[in-house]
Predict the structure.
Amino acid sequence: MARTQVVKSKEFFPEVFSRHAAAYQRRLEDIMARGEARGRARVIELAAPQRGMRLLDLACGPGNLTRRLAPLVAPGGEVVGIDLAPGMVELAREAAIPNARFEVMDMERLEFADASFDAAVCGHGLQFAPDLQRALREAHRVLRAGGRLVASIPVSPVKDSVFDLLDGVIDRWLPPAPEVVDQKHTRETVRDAHALRKGAFDAGFGSASVEVIEEEVHWQSAEQLVSMFMGWWDCASRLESVAPEQREAFKEDALATLKREHPGTISTIGRNHVLIANS
């Protein structure tokens, strides 16, 4: 039996996301373009971007949120995206988004002066911060008086039969997922709306609330879902360690398993917590 690899967040996630940045970008852009990424869409809505505002996009990835926010603050405004994965930032820079710039930076150690931004957003990134409280304090520090942080965080699938099936295939073919040893407290906090709200207050925000947003994503076929699933960081990081023939066997098994239960289009439903915190 393969031994579980023990890793730390900042040694593991930036490298994995860098290697699979293009797959991440394609998957998320497709979902956002169809209006199915409701958690992230709610972030944009609640951030209320207006012309002339300066926004901070935390854990910006390849800039999927940034490219939607940047036109809304023009003219005179700017969106600054930061991410700890160099590969993500490189992709975002290649897009040459007007009114936007990108930096490799740790959300727990923001390299900006106090009161630098009118608002901050984060689309599915806070759960990767090993010191969530420090990340929230840093977001509060760089916001101007009256500024707002809005962050969407994936909590769990509502209907998990599809992913249960895929998890079974993973267990048959792939080594165990790495154990990220400094993630437990953060993951527990973001799953608990009360704890997440309390974390925002403890970080210095004057008011905070958490919305629960469900989103349904449609996949045209098992082939599309499996292809995208193989690029997700948790599956992709495990596929990297196996031989090409084992990767192919995994793919064939995943397709056959899904098609038995879902011969046509497939829907998956997820739940997000959306944190709204005002300084």
The CA atoms of residues 230 and 236 lie 5 Å apart.
